[in-house]
Amino acid sequence: MKGGNVQRARGKHFSFTLLAVVCMTVFLWSYERRPVYTNIISSQDHLILPSDVFDVASHTSGDLNKPEDQPVQEPLRVNVETEETTETTEQHISNIGNKEETTETTEQHISNIGNKEETEDKINHQIPVVEDTEPVTEESSVITEDVRVSLSLSGKNSSSDNKVCNYAKGRWAVNKKRPLYSGFKCKQWLSDMWACRLTQRPDFGYESYKWQPANCDMPDFERSAFLKRMQDKTIAFVGDSLGRQQFQSLMCMVTGGEEIPEVQDVGRKYGLSTPQGGARPNGWAFRFPETNTTILYYWSSCLCDLVPLNSNDPASEVAMHLDRPTYFLKQYLHQFDVLILNTGHHWNRGKVNANRWVMYVDGKPNQNRRLAMIGNAKNLTIHSVAKWVDSQLPSHPRLKAFFRTISPRHFFNGEWNTGGSCENTTPMARGSEVNQEESSDQVIASAVKGTRVNLLDVTALSQLRDEGHISRYSLRPSSGVQDCLHWCLPGIPDTWNEILAAQL
């Protein structure tokens, strides 16, 4: 009887085992046909992106100041359930890098975060030491500037500290909509000496190129739209002859190169007049009545305050206050909505001597031998002006200030007075692309770093365009003298204004 019970128990155990095997087989067969199990997998078992991608994702949420003890945002996860609804890790990382028009790259974003933190630091306005080797130049402003002097400054600066977009990085490309205005018709605003269409120059291929920033959307310049954006505003250019070229370029751009009689000359409102014995006014100002937009230019080649030591003597020496901005800025800054500063090419020993400039600091003649060197004096003024403008911005909240980097010279095989020339007429002979992140003009870049003054970086992109200068095609050419400093218009300064409009 006992033996029968044991056999029956063993039979039941075998039946339960067989039933379990059959159920498991059916379950596994069903799983392969339809993996419902994956629907109940916990989020901890899903695939997690690498930590560097998570870091960018968390920063782009905008909470850059989150304390470390606060909960961290949950990492971005990728569900591997279906191919149709979820990216793979590699695809997601690739997409982060490829969406250039809407998303910054990992490296750019991390760099920008670092730059934003650096802008909170104060500028160390120490005067860098450079060699005083700049040659004497002529009154025509075809003069020298060695951008390498700027490399003496310590520290580095991106051309766009507070912006994701670096407009100085990109390439030149042929554009059918160029030029933006006629070099024949813009006589009301454009000086004849810069209108190369009125000279004997036979080629105009340089007019056909547009600058395309690498990671920025820079739309075509549309004059009526620009004037509407600038309604009831005043745009002021203050600087040397390259600033005057940019001013004339913008006047031609917003008028389409056409004469517009209704545009009003309002120079008197800003004290602009022709000095006694001067060849031209110290500036111009024009108002567009339809939008009440004023565009003006004031001549200030060094941006510092120049005060004759004897106002009754035309031959008097002039105090060159290196640490003070030009009086024009102090007098009229409150009337400006957009300010564009530039300087550089008049900082040479020839100009200082010819203009009888005597360097002053703290209201007294300069006694610092190191500061007497032209490069150091220029750097001090640039930093002083940038710092002063920045100090004024809280009192003028509507004002947007820009400091344009230096416009490069292209004298080959000599200087302007030693046979230097720029006779290349082939566009892009020096290349068409700028890949560097930092500005080529580190003096101005470092001066605006940490301030609310914007950098208008045009040096590297202009360096590629040596075929766009006046060259030997001037209205009154001098034998053996070429202008490899100023630009033909229409031309490169039009691009400076397009970038300005985009940054606005």
Automatic annotation (TrEMBL):
Annotated spans, Disordered: 81-122
RNA-binding in keyword set: no
Domain (Trichome birefringence-like N-terminal): residue spans on this chain: 164-217
Cell compartment(s), UniProt: Membrane
UniProt domain Trichome birefringence-like C-terminal: residue ranges: 218-502
Pfam family membership, one: PC-Esterase
Keyword annotations of the record: Membrane, Signal-anchor, Transmembrane, Transmembrane helix
Sequence intervals crossing the membrane: 12-31
Bilayer topology: Single-pass membrane protein
Gene Ontology process terms (BP): plant-type secondary cell wall biogenesis; xylan biosynthetic process; xyloglucan metabolic process
Cellular component, GO annotation: Golgi apparatus; membrane
Homology family: Belongs to the PC-esterase family. TBL subfamily.
Protein name in the entry: Protein trichome birefringence-like 14
Recorded name of the encoding gene: LOC110801007
